[in-house]
Amino acid sequence: MCYDIKTSLEAQLKRAMRNSDLKAIEEIVEKLAPLTDLPVYHASGFSHPEVLIYTNEDPFYPIIATWGLIPHWVSSEEQKQKLWNSTLNARVETIFEKPAFRDAAVEKRGILYIDGFYEHHHFGKQTYPYFIQQKNEEPLALATLWSVWKNPTTGGTITSFSIVTTSGNELLAKIHNNPKLEEPRMPLLLTEEAETLWLSDNHTVEHDIKTIVEQFNTVPLKAYTVGKLRGKSYLGNVPEVVEEKTYLELEPLKLNL
Questions:
Q1: Which bin fits 88, alpha (ψ -120 to 50), beta or left (φ > 0)?
Q2: Which residues make Cβ contacts (< 8 Å) with residue 256, sequence separation at least 6?
Q3: CB 212 within 8 A of CB 200
Q4: pLDDT tens per residue, the chain (257 residues)?
Q5: What is the pTM of this model?
């Protein structure tokens, strides 16, 4: 699962900067960024934040999208509300089968750049949040699916996305131990080579999925505990939320992260 993220404008500019288009970068900063919820020090997908994603339609110029994919075939506001919280994540194993995701998996794939994501570790009767990031602290590239939904009542449109997830790697196997889940999960991380495959517009991605999934495990990660992300002690979307916090009760576990 991936329900909590941290992302900054700097992270979201990563792909545009790779293309060295200074005019495009300036336009993104001046015109798009103010319309998003950036900076996001912590946001839950259930709050449906608006961020930037890069798509297979324009790999180097992002669009504004809200987290929680709304399939194009949704017929009403009521149906949208019922579905919205269940499409924050899309399991990579079934994206070409599930009605909510299969059209997007073929036609509308994107990348979300983040500074890191949060997952909860269960110990005793408590949960402890970890912040997970790339070892070199560079932005992570997450595979996404996206869609454009037209409200049949108002005629307005919403661009939305889902984060694609896969089986947890060795690190997430230690952290993401929710007893309600069959296995640990994590976002599908893309290497630069996998980014090219994922954003390919030649409809061969289904055949490349195995390669893309195998490569995610080569992205080196590190993690540390942070303050609570829920309840009265939650600090909110502020820089301090990502600061390291030690829990003495976890010390004997020696997770060696």
A1: alpha
A2: 174
A3: no
A4: 789 999 999 999 999 999 888 999 999 999 999 999 999 999 999 999 999 999 999 999 999 999 999 999 999 999 999 999 999 999 999 999 999 999 999 999 999 999 999 999 999 889 999 999 999 999 999 999 999 999 998 999 999 999 999 999 999 999 988 888 889 999 999 999 999 999 987 667 888 898 899 888 899 999 999 999 999 999 999 999 999 999 988 876 666 66
A5: 0.95
